[in-house]
Design goal:
The chain is of the alpha+beta class. It folds into three domains: 60 residues; 83 residues, no CATH class; 79 residues, no CATH class. The chain is 47% helix and 12% strand. The protein contains ten helices and ten strands. The strands form four sheets. The chain has a three-stranded antiparallel β-sheet, covered by helices on one side. It has a three-stranded antiparallel β-sheet with strand order 6-10-9. A hairpin with a 5-residue loop joins strand 1 and strand 2. The longest helix is centred in the middle third of the chain and has 14 residues. The termini are far apart. The relative contact order is 0.11.
Length: 246
Amino acid sequence: MSLFQLCYGPEIHSIFHTIQSYPNIRKEELVNKFQYKQDGNIDSLIEETLQFLDSLKVININENKEIKACETNLDVVDILKKLNLISERSNNPGDPNYVFTNIYIDLFVKPNQLFIGDLHYEINKHYELVSISKEKVNAWKRMMEYFGLGYRYNGGFYALPNYNLLKSIIRRIGKWDGPLQQFFERVIYPIIPCLYKGDIYRGIVFGLLYLNKVGLVQLSRKQDIPFGSFGGNNEWNWITVRSEGE
């Protein structure tokens, strides 16, 4: 199964939650539930979404083509953690799933590059063992935008994690008080690729600076600690996250 499917994003969660609600449902039944109008055919969208979910290992399709959910919860953070695990476990550059899960870190994080205009060209130049169609690259951009890892812009992709994703991560961890570098490494990195050779991707730094600006986290500086500093003038090295209600 390949993660490169012609999905849009919202249907991934809708179909997964429907599978949860109706154990042993079949694809034909899913099509009937989501085919709101007689004209048009969503069979291929359902099929490709099922293949994506199967590749994530969050559903099981048995020999009778009955579908069950393998997870009790699947929000955006869960999906990104699973994609990161696939990336860590795959070492075959000729595997499309290796490509799908490494595009963000290879083309944006490692070179510390926020925007790529012709992502289709850059992907096929970087990963020489596979050929990824423009249609599938566009689907990758749609899904990454839905997951909160960036924005489609002027035909390209701007890899700046959005506020809602970062807020979801903050709300999930509860309290935190410690070095900002460790926060990136221990909290953010398992969800959002952001670390390469000890350097933190500037897109995630910008995101944390915005959370500080709106008061969702508090960035500060402590003297004489053996950790990196971040910000426009490297002025921050400590982060405090308070639980809701504090």
